[in-house]
Amino acid sequence: MQLRRILMSPKRGDELKIAVRTMYLPSQYMQGKGAIYYLGQKARPYGNRAYVIGGGKALAAAGDRVRKSLESNGIEVAKWDDSVKECTHATINRLVDSGKHANAHFVVCVGGGRAIDTAKAVAWKLKIPAIAVGTQCASNADASSESVVYTEDHKFLEVMALSRNPVMVIEDTEIISKAPVKYMVYGMGDALSCKFEGEAYAKARAKKKDGIVPTGAALALGDACYRSLMEHGVAAITDLKNGIHSHAVDEVIEAVKLSSALAFENTGCALAHALHNGLTRTGLVMGEHGEIVAYGTIVQMIYEGRPKEDIRNVISWCDRVGLPTKLKKMGNPSKSALKQAVEYASEKDHNAHNMPEKVKPSDLLAAMDSLERGV
Ligand SMILES: [Zn+2]
């Protein structure tokens, strides 16, 4: 019956239900020192008029290189906007309106998650390709085909499924390694979740038999991301703090920017993000997205009954890179706030449906308790 409805009037996202195995991918990913200088050459097949959109800081740091690379390849900068502060519908619509008259052939999205998500949505609404240029490592938005939309005061509103990834993703490691170290810590915290959430999602799909099957490739990327973080994460943070751009730094950038992006968007979020959403809704939990997700990942591992040795490894890794593993490092929310958070995470948050079994608030609270007491 559902298949018939889909065939008669397909909606966005339906292809995931009938095509059994689907994978969203960018056409090319480039990473390395000076990779930004390839921008113009790589963008040429997409046209000769660029609409450059980014955050103020990102374009102050990388804007000259973006412009030079485009112009030296015969691409005109038809419009330049460095005003993005937050990914809101109002900003997206304003940039779409002003972009309509520029007749740009593609959008160059420059910056961190908020600027990239905004610019990707603008490109999608203008029906032209997006090219993403990351300037820091806090987010895995660059390669993905989704934009996370917030209110003006940074409250989560919705995820826009764009149904198309950026055609090019360029990560200049020289630029990224000069961004504040904390950004890489946050990016790793968010990326840590993709293996565990992806595996839970795959189990849930197999159990619920709803026709959606994630690719083995997406699950393998989640696993590769996790292994890389465990192997190189601590060294990368130590090296960045000492101003060294090392092999470990490059490995972590790839784990966050490529592996985790393709893993998360080709599987689904689960308990770690559900708990993040429950905790942040209380207004009493402090921390960046990646910090709270890392904590949520450990809780999910305990909830799932993963081997103690694996859980302890992740806790010790989080401690060493500077991600929170205890509630006292996240504002020490009250018991009633925690109760409210687990109820929301288990019953209302859509990500909880990607767990193989119905999540029980009491079990989730018990998993959090056990993390507080020490695994
Ligand atoms: Zn996340």
Widest sheet: strand ordering: 1-8-5-4-2-3
Distance between the termini: 47 Å
Hey, roughly how much beta strand do the residues contain?
A: 5-15%
Residue-averaged pLDDT, rounded?
A: 94
**Helix-and-strand structural type:** alpha/beta
Largest sheet: 6 strands, parallel
Shape: globular
Strand tally is 8
CA-based gyration radius: 20 Å
Tell me the series of helices and strands, N- to C-terminal: HHEHEHEHEHEEEEHHHHHHHHH
| Contiguous helical run count | 15
Ranges where pLDDT stays below 50 over 5 or more residues in a row are: none
Task: Explain this structure.
Helix content is about 55%, strand content about 10%. It has about 375 residues and is α/β, with parallel strands linked by helices. The relative contact order is 0.11. The mean pLDDT is about 95. The structure holds zinc ion.
List the helices and strands and how they pair.
Elements: H1 2-8, H2 15-18, E1 28-32, H3 39-43, E2 49-54, H4 56-71, E3 76-81, H5 89-100, E4 106-111, H6 113-126, E5 130-134, E6 146-150, E7 156-161, E8 168-172, H7 173-176, H8 181-208, H9 216-241, H10 247-265, H11 271-281, H12 289-303, H13 308-321, H14 335-348, H15 361-373
Parallel strand pairs: 1-8, 2-3, 2-4, 4-5, 5-8
Antiparallel strand pairs: 6-7
Helix pairs in contact: 5-6, 8-9, 8-10, 8-12, 9-10, 9-13, 11-12, 11-14, 12-13, 12-15, 14-15
The structure holds zinc ion (ZN).
